[in-house]
Amino acid sequence: MTEITGLPQDAPGVLVTVHAVQGSVPREAGAWMAVFADRVAGTIGGGQLEFQAIAQARAQLQGAAGAAGAQPDVIRYPLGPSLGQCCGGVVHLRYEGTTAAGVRALHLRAMAGQEPVALFGGGHVGRALVEVLGRLPFAVTWIDSRDEIFPDAVPANVRCEHSDPVQAAVRDLAPGTRVLIMSFSHAEDLDVVAACLQRLRERDDLPYVGLIGSNTKWATFRRRLEQRGFRPDELARITSPIGIPGIVGKEPAVIAVAVAAQLLQQQQPH
């Protein structure tokens, strides 16, 4: 979602919602974007459909002749030759006035239904992953023991949390949280993994716990966790290395994409 920070609360906009669909279309009913004079938040699927919808919304904003009042609230768009899109379906778009405050409230309501992710670690990979997850349907809690590590601005679906000791944050994670562990320290990583295993033993409510690193790192961690009393079947709940197979690049952005793709593979249908 494009940020709408910097706009006054009462800045006028037009909320464009996918009201109904038929056949093959880019986005599902309920998808939305908000159009303001100088920016757009959200998306209804891109292409000529979105281009025309933005033009229609801005015409309403500007009070262009025949745009406001004369046009129906819901407009039908066949996705064929006239739009230059070959999906073949039909999209009905609803246009309604809104404000920047209204869009922020809508976005917060949407976030409340998003799957929670806890990201431990504010290093290079953590920062790259926040940039990727900031555009995906997750509610991210970004946790580090170093309070000064977080940037001044983060995506709207990311909340920063300072925790020292860092593993103490595991106790308060929302049920169903998917956990990613990539702190600046192997000792911290080990403590967070152990805290997750203890929570799985007690509550079994963390569907995914992923640890960044190599097979060698995980082998070392396995031995140390066994010494702490965790059983092989419990250790099998940890995913390490993380990321979808077949992506071998070591650059932070490459790792971030591979990890985000793995989270999306496991996402529950709504």
Written account of the structure:
By secondary structure, the protein is an alpha/beta fold. The chain has 2 domains: 97 residues, no CATH class; 153 residues, NAD(P)-binding Rossmann-like Domain (Rossmann fold, 3-Layer(aba) Sandwich), CATH 3.40.50. The chain contains 7 helices and 11 strands. The strands form 2 sheets. Strands 8-7-6-9-10-11 form a 6-stranded parallel sheet, sandwiched between helices. α4 links the parallel β9 and β10. The chain is elongated. 34% of the residues are buried. About 3% of the residues have low confidence.
Whole-number tally of structural domains:
2
What is the overall pLDDT average? 87
CATH topology of the largest domain: Rossmann fold
The CATH architecture classification of the largest domain is 3-Layer(aba) Sandwich
User: How many helices?
Assistant: 7
Looking at how many chains there are and whether they match, the oligomeric state comes to single chain
Number of strands: 11
| Alpha-beta classification | alpha/beta
Give me the secondary-structure topology.
Elements: E1 12-22, E2 32-35, E3 40-42, H1 47-62, E4 74-78, E5 90-99, H2 100-112, E6 115-120, H3 124-133, E7 138-144, E8 158-162, E9 178-181, H4 186-202, E10 208-211, H5 215-227, H6 232-235, E11 238-239, H7 252-266
Parallel strand pairs: 6-7, 6-9, 7-8, 9-10, 10-11
Antiparallel strand pairs: 1-2, 1-5, 2-3, 4-5
